[in-house]
């Protein structure tokens, strides 16, 4: 990877001081105990099966004025901005492609992660997220409508507190709709972290971390992300890592499907609100234009009178 | 892969055949093509294998190095996968043409080997926090005849089975540094414990059905495949009878969807179950073949190597 | 020659008192060459060659229409790519190709192969030759040339003659120069200059020559002679392999007719 010379970097073999703080030397069990209290309530007060709500206030379309379409999604501490740009001809391509392409780029803000500062250049995780996002979006967009063109989708993760891929997919779905890119269906996505028999819906970063570390005893653990086209009853992407048996995966899938279903009305609401807002804005602009024309006309009348008189 | 052109009629023939559980080379939907496997083919590598699955040809070389473990995981070694698509396989791979495909496969392998249930990195530890083995698994794709993922995962498991780490004879402590003395004796080495190493199974969705081991022609008829990584059964890879690990069930270590299409939830679940069954059988067959080869080598003391000369 | 003078020369220890080399060969003895044509089905031509521990795979695609930017009006364009597997050398390589060295070798291969092909037969066309070194133990370039020749023959591309390549180096025995043919990696790294010759032995012409270090002009002709002799020896082996391969496919088609 090319070195970042513009910023001040520590020596290559240095160890961050955080490594020696209390949080780091905790064992697996201690970390696990921290996630849930005795009543089975999570650290941030949610129940196990409770997702962070993506209500109207925290999700909206049309955020970035320069972009054709954009969206912002906030799930408590996970904050994602997405912007979509007009279709343009695919650069550096010799052959004609019958289907349009979606170009995705996911970028973490340098201050987005609690564990370490993000490097400037795109790293492996960002690339992996970009690929996963593209795979999830491809089936939902009518790509035959813009052959030989590509739509650019840029995701900027302001803050990452788990489930950033699902947040990115949800935001991208909203932004694509806002940009009036033809789509087959609303795309929604959700993540689940599995540790033993516990299923953490919409996990935070700490939960995700523990689900992907290796436990001391061989229990089911893993992270699953599912994105669906709910009206078409189709799964556009499904990713699992970790180590889980069949039953556990199947259960998690059912939970995920339900959660994705739950998100649809929320997304619809955001989109409707956005359209209403656009209408209102257009109406206001039209009214303003009418007023200006009226004022101008009356001025003209005045001048005409003056001319005729003079 | 290379200049594969199918007419619409040919595609219809393949799709209809699959619906009737009949494929153009006479297999049913759950059959694999015959394969050839040979280990210890590259003398410069610590472990190596070559797998030929019909037209798909994979060569894997394993190299080891001594490295410093990461501060977060002082007791774990490292494993890294690198895939190279040789231009021998297809002229499109010339230069950096095969990079996208290569990175995709490498990432799948990395995800499949992530969990300790799949591959225990603790066995690579030499001195906790100071020194560990780093295993480079270099995969060379020499010919593509469909179903790369399955072939790669099997060849990798065989190459790791063939890998022997030299034992440490002495360690000289000098201040904070450790100077290791490794044994020169090729027989004074320990094999890796790879019984649980995962195999990938690709399930290619053609029409409404899923097939295992798709040929290149079949792959071009499909828009989406599900790739599952399933852990192996250690008892298939050990001659000792007392390994009573039959309780260890197979688990999913990774599930991913490859391609631009989408699937119905039921198809996905069926595919996962089908993949699990296929992976178990494949793992058993691979274990038998590897043990047989090892035995033959021991009896004859010097194995006649075929390499590419057969 | 005084013994003092001899000590400074590289390649002194390359021959034992019996006149044998480190791996037990005589100075004019090639390493064991095993080869096979048609190892793959997808390329138009393919070949595999083992020269001792050096193992090379070659694949040929074409002739096909050349890209517009490269296309030549009156002859064929040879496009060559040389890459080494990451596990082919003692130390792991970071990249299989794209480095300066492999780019240079690709160029040299293109030059050597271009001389041997009847270029004028395929105007506005292109032939791709891809070489993959699986194991490098000295003379990887030579083995690549030989593998490319076999793959081109397998692809049925008309050539003027067999293009063979061989390396030679020099050692001293009893103070007298003794050229070594087909140099292995150990001998290469022991020092001394290595002469690589690609030639068309049957029409007695040289396609490409390279020398890695300085060599006294007096000895050049001896070393060159040995390398050319090596090329001639290799030609015999390649010719045998081609005939065997063709014989095999002929008998196979005979069987098919009989059935």
TrEMBL record, chain A:
Family: Belongs to the RNase PH family.
Gene label: LOC118277309
Protein name in the entry: Exosome complex component MTR3-like isoform X1
Keyword Nucleus tagged: yes
Keyword ATP-binding: no
All copies of domain Exoribonuclease phosphorolytic, residue ranges: 59-182
Superkingdom, natural source: Eukaryota
CDD domains referenced in this protein's UniProt entry, alphabetically: RNase_PH_MTR3
Main location, first listed in the record: cytoplasm
Gene Ontology MF, one: RNA binding
GO BP term, pick one: U4 snRNA 3'-end processing
Gene3D superfamilies associated with the record: GHMP Kinase, N-terminal domain
GO CC term (a single one): cytoplasmic exosome (RNase complex)
Short name of any one Pfam family annotated for the protein: RNase_PH
Xref: PANTHER family: EXOSOME COMPLEX COMPONENT, EXOSOME COMPLEX COMPONENT MTR3
InterPro entries for this protein: ExoRNase_PH_dom1, ExoRNase_PH_dom2_sf, PNPase/RNase_PH_dom_sf, Ribosomal_Su5_D2-typ_SF, RNase_PH
Subcellular location: Cytoplasm; Nucleus
Transmembrane feature ranges: none
Keyword annotations from UniProtKB, A to Z: Cytoplasm, Exosome, Nucleus, RNA-binding, rRNA processing
UniProtKB/TrEMBL annotation, chain B:
Broad class of where this protein is predominantly found: cytoplasm
Ranges annotated as spanning the membrane: none
Gene Ontology MF: a single term: mRNA 3'-UTR AU-rich region binding
Domain Exoribonuclease phosphorolytic: 32-166, 198-275
This protein's UniProt keywords: Cytoplasm, Exosome
Pfam families for the chain: RNase_PH, RNase_PH_C
A cellular-component GO term for this protein: cytoplasmic exosome (RNase complex)
Cellular localisation: Cytoplasm; Nucleus, Nucleolus
One GO biological process term: exonucleolytic trimming to generate mature 3'-end of 5.8S rRNA from tricistronic rRNA transcript (SSU-rRNA, 5.8S rRNA, LSU-rRNA)
UniProt cross-references to PANTHER family, sorted A to Z: EXOSOME COMPLEX COMPONENT RRP42, EXOSOME COMPLEX EXONUCLEASE RIBOSOMAL RNA PROCESSING PROTEIN
Protein family according to the UniProt entry: Belongs to the RNase PH family.
Name this protein carries in UniProt: Ribosomal RNA-processing protein 42
Native organism: Spodoptera frugiperda (Fall armyworm)
From TrEMBL, chain C:
Domain Exoribonuclease phosphorolytic: from-to ranges: 29-158
One Gene Ontology term from the biological process aspect of the record: nuclear mRNA surveillance
Keywords carried by this UniProt record: Cytoplasm, Exosome
Subcellular location: Cytoplasm; Nucleus, Nucleolus
Gene Ontology molecular function terms on file: RNA binding
GO cellular component: cytoplasmic exosome (RNase complex); nuclear exosome (RNase complex); nucleolus
Cited SUPFAM superfamilies: Ribonuclease PH domain 2-like, Ribosomal protein S5 domain 2-like
InterPro entries: ExoRNase_PH_dom1 (IPR001247), ExoRNase_PH_dom2_sf (IPR036345), PNPase/RNase_PH_dom_sf (IPR027408), Ribosomal_Su5_D2-typ_SF (IPR020568), RNase_PH (IPR050080)
Top-rank lineage group of the source organism: Eukaryota
Function noted in UniProt: Non-catalytic component of the RNA exosome complex which has 3'->5' exoribonuclease activity and participates in a multitude of cellular RNA processing and degradation events.
UniProt record similarity statement: Belongs to the RNase PH family.
Subunit structure: Component of the RNA exosome complex.
Protein name: Putative exosome complex component RRP41
Organism: Spodoptera frugiperda (Fall armyworm)
């Amino acid at each position: 990877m090319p070195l970042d010379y513009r910023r001040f970097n520590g020596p290559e073999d240095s160890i961050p001081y955080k490594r020696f703080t209390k949080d780091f030397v905790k064992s697996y069990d201690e970390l696990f105990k921290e996630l849930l209290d005795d009543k089975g309530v999570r650290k941030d007060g949610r129940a196990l099966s409770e997702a962070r709500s993506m209500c109207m206030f925290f999700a909206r379309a049309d955020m970035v004025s320069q972009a054709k379409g954009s969206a912002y999604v906030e799930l408590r501490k996970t904050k994602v901005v997405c912007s979509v740009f007009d279709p343009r001809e695919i650069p550096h391509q010799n052959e004609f492609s019958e289907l349009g392409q979606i170009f995705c780029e996911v970028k973490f803000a340098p201050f987005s992660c609690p564990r370490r500062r993000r490097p400037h250049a795109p790293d492996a995780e960002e690339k992996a997220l970009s690929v996963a996002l593209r795979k999830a979006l491809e089936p939902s967009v009518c790509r035959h409508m813009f052959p030989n063109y590509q739509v650019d989708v840029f995701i900027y993760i302001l803050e990452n507190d788990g489930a950033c891929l699902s947040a990115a997919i949800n935001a991208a779905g909203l932004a694509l709709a806002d940009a009036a890119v033809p789509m087959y269906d609303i795309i929604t996505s959700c993540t689940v972290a599995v540790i033993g028999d516990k299923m953490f819906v919409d996990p935070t970063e700490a939960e995700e971390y523990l689900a992907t570390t290796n436990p001391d005893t061989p229990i089911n653990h893993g992270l699953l992300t599912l994105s669906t086209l709910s009206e078409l009853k189709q799964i556009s992407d499904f990713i699992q890592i970790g180590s889980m048996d069949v039953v556990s995966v199947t259960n998690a899938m059912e939970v995920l499907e339900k959660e994705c279903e739950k998100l649809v009305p929320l997304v619809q609401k955001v989109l409707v609100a956005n359209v209403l807002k656009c209408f209102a804005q257009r109406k206001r602009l039209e009214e303003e234009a009418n007023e200006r024309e009226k004022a101008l006309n009356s001025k003209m009348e005045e001048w005409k009178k003056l001319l005729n008189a003079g | 892969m290379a200049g594969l052109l199918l007419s619409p009629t040919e595609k219809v023939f393949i799709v209809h055949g699959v619906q009737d559980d009949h494929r153009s080379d006479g297999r049913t939907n759950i059959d694999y093509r015959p394969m050839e496997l040979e280990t210890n083919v590259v003398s410069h590598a610590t472990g190596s294998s070559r797998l030929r699955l019909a037209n798909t040809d994979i060569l894997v070389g394993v190299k080891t190095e001594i490295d410093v473990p990461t501060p977060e995981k002082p007791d774990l070694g490292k494993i890294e996968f690198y895939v190279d698509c040789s231009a021998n396989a297809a002229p499109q791979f010339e230069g950096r043409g095969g990079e996208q495909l290569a990175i995709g496969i490498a990432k799948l392998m990395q995800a499949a080997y992530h969990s300790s249930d799949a591959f225990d990195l603790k066995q690579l530890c030499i001195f906790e926090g100071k020194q560990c083995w780093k295993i480079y698994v270099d995969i060379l794709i020499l010919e593509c005849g469909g179903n790369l993922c399955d072939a790669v995962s099997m060849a990798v498991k065989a190459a790791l089975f063939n890998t022997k780490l030299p034992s440490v004879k002495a360690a000289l402590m000098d201040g904070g540094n450790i100077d290791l003395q490794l044994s020169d004796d090729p027989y004074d080495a320990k094999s890796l414990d790879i019984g649980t190493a995962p195999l990938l199974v690709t399930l290619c969705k053609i029409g409404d059905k899923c097939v295992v081991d798709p040929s290149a022609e079949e792959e071009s008829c499909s828009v989406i495949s599900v790739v599952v990584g399933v852990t192996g059964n250690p008892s298939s890879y050990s001659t000792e009878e007392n390994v009573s690990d039959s309780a260890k069930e197979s688990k999913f270590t990774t599930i991913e969807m490859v391609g631009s299409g989408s699937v119905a939830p039921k198809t996905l679940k069926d595919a996962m179950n089908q993949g699990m069954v296929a992976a178990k059988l494949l793992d058993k067959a691979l274990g038998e073949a590897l043990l047989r080869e090892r035995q033959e080598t021991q009896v004859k003391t010097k194995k006649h190597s075929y390499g590419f000369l057969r | 020659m005084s013994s003092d003078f001899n000590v400074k020369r590289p390649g002194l220890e390359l021959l034992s008192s019996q006149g044998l080399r480190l791996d037990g060969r005589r100075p004019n003895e090639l390493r064991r060459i095993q080869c096979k044509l048609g190892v793959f089905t997808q390329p138009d031509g393919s070949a595999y060659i083992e020269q001792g521990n050096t193992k090379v795979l070659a694949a040929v695609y074409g002739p096909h229409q050349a890209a517009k930017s490269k296309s030549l009006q009156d002859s064929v364009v040879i496009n060559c790519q040389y890459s080494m597997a990451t596990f082919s050398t003692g130390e792991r390589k970071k990249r299989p190709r794209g480095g300066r060295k492999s780019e240079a070798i690709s160029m040299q291969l293109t030059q050597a192969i271009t001389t041997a092909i009847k270029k004028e037969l395929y105007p506005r066309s292109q032939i791709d030759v891809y070489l993959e070194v699986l194991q490098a133990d000295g003379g990887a370039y030579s083995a690549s040339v030989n593998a490319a020749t076999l793959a081109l023959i397998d692809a049925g591309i008309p050539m003027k003659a067999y293009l063979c390549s061989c390396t030679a180096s020099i050692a001293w025995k009893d103070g007298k120069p003794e050229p070594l043919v087909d140099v292995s990696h150990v001998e290469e790294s022991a020092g001394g200059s290595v002469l690589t010759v690609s030639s068309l032995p049957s029409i007695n012409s040289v396609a490409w020559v390279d020398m890695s270090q300085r060599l006294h002009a007096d000895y050049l002709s001896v070393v060159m002679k040995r390398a050319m002799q090596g090329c001639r020896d290799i030609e015999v082996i390649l010719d045998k392999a081609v005939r065997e391969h063709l014989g095999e496919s002929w008998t196979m088609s005979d069987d098919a007719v009989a059935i």
